[in-house]
Structure formats: structure tokens, C-alpha cells
Amino acid sequence: MKKAFPILAILTAALLGYAFYEAMFVAPTDQMQGDVYRIIYYHVPSGWTMFVFFFTNFIASIVYLIRRNPKADAVAVAAAEVGLVFCTVVLVTGPLWARPVWGIWWTWDWRLTSTLVLWLIYASYLILRRFSTGGQTPVLAAALAVFGALDMPLVYFSIWFFRTQHPQPVVGGGGSIDPSMLRVWMISWAAFLCFGWLVFWLRYRLEIFKREVEETHSLEAMLEEPRFR
Amino acid sequence: MSSFWAITSATLAKDLRLEWRSKDAINSMLFFALLVVVIFSFSFDPTAEESRHIAGGLVWVAFLFAAVVALNQTWAREMRNAVLDAYRVSPAPANPLFLAKAFGNFIFVSIIQALMTPLFTVFYNLRPLGPAWQLIPVAILGSWALVVNGTFFAAMSLHTRSREIMLPILLFPFSIPALVAMVQATNTILTGQDSAKFWIVLLLTYDVVFTVACLLLFETVLDAE
Q1: pLDDT digits (tens, 9 = 90+) for A79-126
Q2: In 3-state terms, what secondary structure has residue A210?
Q3: Which of helix, strand or coil describes residue B160?
Q4: Which of A40-49, A54-63, B87-96, B180-189 is the most confident on average?
Q5: Chain B residue whose CA is closest to A140
Q6: B98: closest CA among B169, B7, B179?
Q7: Which residue has the higher pLDDT, B214 or A218?
Q8: A-B interface: how many C-beta pairs under 8 angstroms?
Q9: Residues of A in Cβ contact (< 8 Å) with B173
């Protein structure tokens, strides 16, 4: 860990720098939108990375419910936190892009709304983890993660039919994308995945250490001589 | 199987009897819903023709807030004298307890709806332009959607600090698809512009999915240590 981390961190930083260079200087300028579209190389890869982490959280929660393995719970909490950060990045870069292109910061389009609901669900997941006391936290959190996974298809479905008047998404709405843009997209996504994974790994280690410290403390408290007689 | 329903009906009968004697939940919910109706009326002109389009939202937000009042009290009674712990060490399965609590809350919310609907109709000058009978399945499925998850999340928040605030924090985000469906169904029936069938089916799906999920996971949550 101590040796591997700096190497991986340097590699990730280099990849992020390369992705930035590609996105800002190499990728062709969009015909319709000009340079402002370049935020796409941050917005969309963040979205994909977010889904990877939320899916990891769901799998880890299922594993925890079946096996009761504390490591699965540590994976779940780390994945949920990193996923929520990427979700926040999506929700912040979206309006920054929408303002110059659509003329508005926010619209209650189904993509925007469902991402916001996803953010709310995972925020409530982390709040539950924060507020629940003692050893039940992992079980409650895992159950809630399963509920979230069941809820999301219904959220997409309901909002899809609710907001039918949405403006067509600029990307992915049946439009085609230039292969050179797609290439930069993939480089950017790879960089974001590496970065997200690095942060996730750190957070996971931190969670494991935290539990070890807590266990040691409670063990010491049990073994300690009573001071007041 | 017969013992399953025996436990359910015994717990339900006990809760209903307690509520009949104290009327705590019903009274507080009723007053709360009334306050929401009155306070909403100050934020816009409630008798204008446009308010028909938002009436569904108002009605359901009032019921949602009122339901939280009752849901928060669901398990509090069982915490006193460690009744819940006694139940956990008893050989009785967990699901009948959950169903009894959910049915109880469903009955309370339905009573509130029956009492509040005439009031809404008068205060907001409502007259459904679509098929009014469809409001009944919407009300039943919508209340069950709020109550089944609400009862489950209330049991979850038993183990948390600041229990009372935890329930809405969990319940509201997870209820969004159900809320969209019930509000849209009510609005389409009130305005008579469209068919509410799709929304009723969506509500039914939500109810089935989460009733099954609650029954599968309730024991896990109740025994979480």
C-alpha cells in the first residue's frame, strides 16, 4: 500500500493531465456550441463513474446481507461516498453547461430530475449511516441500499412519463458523435475511473483502520482495571 | 399460516383499541392536515381555475405530512417496557408484526383521507371532471405506498439518533415515484384531460415491489444488532 499508492497517484495525475490536454486542445470544436461544449468531457464521464460506484455499493450491500462480511460493508460505504461526489460533479457541471447552451441553469427534464433523485437517495443513505448508532448501521444501510436499487427503475419510469416535454438531450438523444470526440471521451472516462478508484481505495483503507482502532479501544476499555473502587 | 394471521390480527386489534381510547394519532394527523390546507391557501388563490391543476399535489403533500405524524408513533409504543425486545425473543415471526403495524397505519391514513376530502373539496372548490370513482383506487394504492415504506423506515429509524427527523429523511426521497404517480393520477382525474390508468398501474407496481421488499427485509432490520 505505502509503495503502490504514490506510484498509482502519479500515474493517475498524469492520466488526468493528459485527458485535460486532449479535452481542451486536441478535441475538435463543436460546430453548434463552440468551445463551451468541452465540459462534456467532465460531465458525462463523471456520470458513468457515478453509476459504477453506485452499482458497486449495491453489490457490496447484497454481499453484506448474505455473508455479513465487514469488508463488504466498508466497500459499500466507500463506494457510496465516492459515488455521491461524482453525482455532485454531474449536478454542478450540468447547469454550468446548460446556462450558455440552453439559456437556463436548470430544467426539470427527466435526466436532470432522476439524477437529482439519485443524489437524494444516496444522501439519505449516508445520513442514515451517520445517525444510526452502534453495530446495526451496516445492516440498516445495506437494507436501504437494496431499497434504493429497487426504487431507481421506478423513479426513471415515473419521471420519464411525467416530463415528456423535456428538451432533447444534446448528447445521446439519437445524435451521432464524431469518432475523435468519442476517443477523448474514453480517455477522460479512464482518467476519472482511475481517480475515483484511487479515492475509493483510500476511503476503504481508512474505514478498515477506523474499525480496527474502534475495536482496540473497546477491547482496552474492557480489559482496563476499574479506577474507582 | 393460521398463527401468522392470528398474530397479525391480535396486534392490529390491540393497536386499534389503544388508538380508539387515546385517539392520539388520529387527532394529531387531522389537525396537522387541516393546518397544511389552511396554510397552503395563503400561498395562492385556492378557488382559481388553475388551482385544479395543482390540487392533486396539495392533497397528497398534506396526506404525506400527516402520515409522517402517525408513522413516527408506530413503534414508540412498543419501545416502552421493552415490548419490542420481548417480541424479538419470542418465537413469533417478525412479518405479522410488520403487517399489523402497516395495516394499522393504513387505517389511520384512510380515516384522515375520508375526513379531509370533503374539506378539501369545499375549501378548494374541487369538482372532478374525469371519472371520480378512479380516485378510490388511487387513494388506496397511494396510502399503502406511503404506509408500507413508512412503517419499514420507522422501524429502521428506531435505532438512530434523532429518530423523529430520520423518518422523513428516509421516506421522502424513496417515495418520489409513488408521489409522482399519485399526484399525476389525481390531477388527471380532477382535470379530466387524460387517462389515469398508467399512473394507477405504476402505483400498483410500486406497492407490490416494496411490500415484497419490506416483508423480505423486515426481520433483518428488526433483529439488527
Answers
A1: 999 999 999 999 999 888 888 888 888 888 778 888 999 999 999 999
A2: helix
A3: strand
A4: A54-63
A5: B221
A6: B7
A7: B214
A8: 89
A9: 117, 120-121, 123-124
* Contact status of A132 with chain B (Cβ, < 8 Å): yes
Residues 160-219 of B with CB under 8 A from A: 160-162, 166, 169-170, 172-174, 176-178, 180-181, 184, 198, 202, 205-206, 209-210, 213, 217
Q: Residue B105 pLDDT more than 50? A: yes
More confident: A55 or A38: A55
B161 → closest Cβ in A120, A133, A146: A133
A65 close contact with B: CB closer than 8 A: yes
Cell of B76: 414508540
What is the domain range of residue B172?
Answer: 2-222
List of chain A residues whose C-beta atoms are within 8 Å of the C-beta of residue B210: 147, 150
Per the CB < 8 A criterion, the answer to whether B175 and B202 are in contact is no
Asked if A15 and A190 touch (Cβ cutoff 8 Å), the reply is yes
Q: Compute the nearest-CA separation of A69 from chain B (Å).
A: 14
Q: pLDDT for A157-193, tens place per residue?
A: 888 777 654 445 544 444 566 777 788 888 999 999 9
Contact between residue A44 and residue A171 where contact means Cβ atoms under 8 Å apart: yes
The pLDDT of residue A63 is 96
Residues on chain A touching B145 (C-beta within 8 angstroms): none
